[in-house]
Amino acid sequence: MGERRNKLNHPHSAVLKMLMKKILTDKEKTKFEIQRKNVTSLYNEVASVYDESFDGKAKYKIPQKLLEIYQKHGITEGKVLDIGCGTGKLRQYLGNNFTYEGVDISSAMIEEVKKRGLKGHVGAIEDIIETFTDKSVDHITALSSLFFIKDWKKLAKEFDRVARKSIFVSLEQFEPEIIEMMKERGISVYNHSASIIKNPTEIIKNVFLWIRPTVKERVPIFGDLVFKKLS
Ligand SMILES: C[S@@+](CC[C@H](N)C(=O)[O-])C[C@H]1O[C@@H](n2cnc3c(N)ncnc32)[C@H](O)[C@@H]1O
Separation of 146 CA from ligand 1 center, angstroms? Predict the structure, then answer.
């Protein structure tokens, strides 16, 4: 025991601690890069058929829910920044009083956004959000995309900084089998808590959101919808 304490007090132990910290940070960074690479290639592969394979089959309820919430809270116009926007499909649900731009890590998804004549940014939202100045968009939306993001807490703070009028997110709660299946593909999926959004206006808990369209067993996905009105 005495010998062990001596070892830890040894001047080399500080260097050792620093090295361990660096190894752990590098490990985290590598995990982060792998996640980004695998998510990007998954969505690059499916982008051109995404809408066609999703439409109807997924019984995707979130855009409808967003519209209901906007209506309830008197939101009828403004600039929407859509996070993990996919093909930019959300645009067709919004009225003409809204302007739309999307961010997606998949360049093929952003090509689809551009085919719709919309503005899109390619990149990880964790990086891109930092380029937006304070209160520079009216509404932030994130539909079925935050489960790919580990540090949702940090991103939520950024949403508060960038959005002027409202924030709307879906927080899917996946069954362990789906999380495991994605892990086997080298992708981490996170069931985030709604409590990370401070002072939400409305939380709709544990609602049906969509059905996985690509698997034979039509597994329904449930989750929480969180809306925060800022002004
Ligand atoms: C399930 S799709 C949902 C697409 C769209 N929001 C919708 O409702 O149809 C998830 C999207 O999030 C994107 N994505 C995943 N991680 C991301 C990240 N870190 N930054 C930006 N986009 C990301 C994916 O490329 C994909 O297009």
Answer: 8
